[in-house]
Design brief:
Oligomer: single chain
Helix content: 25-40%
Shape: globular
CATH class of the largest domain: Alpha Beta
Number of helices: 14
CATH topology of the largest domain: Aspartate Aminotransferase, domain 2
Largest sheet: 7 strands, mixed
Radius of gyration: 22 Å
Structural class: alpha/beta
Number of domains: 2
CATH architecture of the largest domain: 3-Layer(aba) Sandwich
Strand content: 15-25%
């Protein structure tokens, strides 16, 4: 399928605005993607024409809202290649999805002396829940080292897997470096030893097609706002037999089957994990984002972002004062770097005066920054709406910042 990023840009109203008096160059999609008109319209349409609470109403408006919400779950199921809609749980974001698994599956299956394996690439959201669970259960958190190129050391990973390993939790794509982790090898090695695997797919699903069955994972999480959808919507995919065995995460509302003062029973998954009134319009926006991406073609988006990543890397490497952080052979969507003599926060501020929006900081990956002996990096992250001219402006703005600090 052919893909024209210049045409796609027209679908994003915010790209028509200026930034500090300059045309906006948005290079912070890894933090949160901008929203196409289709998503904005889908959310507005629910509130304007279809809004009511779902599942319990017997009137037409409630039935319409229920169809929209439940239809969104089917859209997500197909998007991930899950076997059944019962395997799709709506959450607020990937962070809540991970916390849900830690609080339910984790507490039920991790005990004193057990181990959880993560990697040195992880976002704080895929470190701290497991860290807290290990403290609570007197278990041990094991960390797979990262190479100088920013790749997971697979040989070291396999050596960390043992009889006491109860879960592997690892990113599909690094938010700080753009490294694509070889997930099939990770899941195969873990499953050979009977160890379940959770994948943080927040940076993967906006960039290429994901099939949870083909990947062989047991849990998969992502956030809607990084997928060109609304904030406040996330997804947890879990294999049906695992979700069936997990206790509730929160209680109240639609996750209840029956209540008496003597006993409460709960709905089966996914409702068991969706307490209270859900984000009905958010579900519609998430489904619209998925439909939008499918319409453009995820394979075409993947090739576009890979080409932009290569072009941006070559462009930035021509700046003598700049050092790339994260040079994995297999990476996409993220250009992380430091500039000699210019703190990343100062660089981000100066680039903003040129209309270029990047992220500067530790990117919720402080252990990874420590691994590379830097307090922070400047990070330009790409989306389907970015074009080569955006990267040309980025490079020019960096050179301008360097001149200011001479």
């Amino acid at each position: 399928m052919s893909f024209d990023p210049y045409l796609a840009r027209r679908d994003f109203p915010i790209l028509e605005r200026t930034n500090r008096g300059q045309p906006l160059v948005y290079l912070d999609t890894a933090a949160s993607a901008q929203k196409p008109r289709a998503v904005i319209d889908a959310i507005s349409d629910v509130y304007e024409r279809h809004y009511a609470n779902i599942h319990r109403g017997v009137y037409e408006l409630s039935e319409e809202a229920t169809r929209i919400h439940d239809g969104a779950r089917e859209t997500v199921r197909a998007f991930l290649g899950a076997a059944d809609v019962r395997e799709i749980v709506f959450t607020r974001n990937a962070t809540e999805s991970i916390n849900l698994v830690a609080a339910t599956f984790g507490r039920a299956n991790v005990g004193p002396g057990d181990e959880i394996v993560i990697s040195g690439l992880e976002h704080h959201a895929n470190i701290v829940p497991w860290q807290m669970l290990c403290q609570e259960k007197e278990a041990r958190l094991r960390v797979v080292p990262v190479t100088d190129a920013g790749e997971v050391d697979l040989e070291a990973f396999e050596k960390l897997l043992g009889d006491r390993t109860r879960l592997v939790a690892i990113s599909h794509v690094s938010n700080a470096l753009g490294t694509i982790v070889p997930i099939r090898e990770v899941t195969a090695a873990a499953h050979e030893r009977g160890i379940p695997v959770l994948l943080d797919g927040a940076q993967a699903v906006p960039r290429f097609a994901v099939d949870v069955g083909e990947l062989g994972c047991d849990f998969y999480v992502f956030s809607g706002h990084k997928l060109y959808g609304p904030s406040g919507m996330g997804v947890l995919y879990g294999r049906a037999e695992l979700l069936e065995a997990m206790p509730p995460y929160q209680t109240g509302g639609d996750m209840i089957e029956s209540v008496s003062f003597e006993k409460t029973t709960f709905q089966p998954p996914p409702q068991r994990f969706e307490a209270g009134t859900p984000d009905i319009a958010g579900a519609a926006g998430l489904a619209a984002a998925i439909d939008y991406l499918n319409g453009l073609g995820l394979d075409a988006i993947e090739q576009h972002e890979l080409e932009l990543t290569r072009y941006g890397t070559e462009l930035l490497q021509q700046i003598p004062e700049l050092r790339m952080i994260g040079t994995a052979a297999d990476k996409t969507g993220v250009l992380s770097f430091v500039v000699e003599g210019v703190h990343p926060h100062d660089l981000g501020t100066i680039l903003d005066t040129q209309g270029v929006a990047i992220r500067a900081g530790h990117h919720c990956a402080q252990p990874l920054m420590e691994r590379f002996d830097v307090p922070a990096t400047a990070r330009a992250s790409l989306g389907l709406y970015n074009v080569r001219e955006d990267l040309d402006k980025l490079a020019a703005a960096i050179r301008h910042a360097i001149e200011l600090f001479r």
